[in-house]
């Protein structure tokens, strides 16, 4: 019987929903989905330059699990670059300590300590929660 999947701790949402190649309309692109925890693994190891042991500790997972997650994320990014695919960042098995929202009106990404009902930048109520409500 496989082990239960542990929720990976994510400290901040990505500042964008994804990327796409120049010159190709979005509708014509096949996407590669990069999970929130895969984005976090890339952020911690490659951007923050943490060791895999340190990054695994921040995500509350084992070092071997972090290595698998990081390798999977790199393969997805490489595939998107080589094959000219869009990268969408969404979904996964993760937990956060706060609430993440995206405003559909002004495209602002908000991180708050308690639930929000409207965008703090434009006061629009057209916001969507990016992370789960359960803690």
Q: Which terms would index this structure?
A:
135 residues, 3 helices, single chain, 19% strand, alpha/beta, three-stranded antiparallel beta sheet, three-stranded mixed beta sheet
Describe this structure in words.
With 135 residues, this protein is α/β, with parallel strands linked by helices. 30% of the residues lie in helices and 19% in strands. The protein contains 3 helices and 8 strands. The strands form 3 sheets. A 3-stranded mixed sheet has the order 2-4-3. Helix 1 (36-47) runs antiparallel to helix 2. The longest helix has 21 residues, at 63-83.
Quote the distance from N terminus to C terminus: 26 Å
Main pleated-sheet profile: 3 strands, mixed
How would you classify the quaternary structure? single chain
Uncertain residue ranges: none
Helical content stands at 25-40%
Number of helices: 3
Question: How much of the sequence is in beta strands?
Answer: 15-25%
- Give the ordered list of helices and strands: EEEHHHEEEEE
Count of DSSP E strands?
8
Question: Roughly how many Å is the radius of gyration?
Answer: 16 Å
Q: Structural class per helix/strand content?
A: alpha/beta
Average of per-residue pLDDT values: 88
Major beta sheet, strand line-up: 2-4-3
General shape = globular
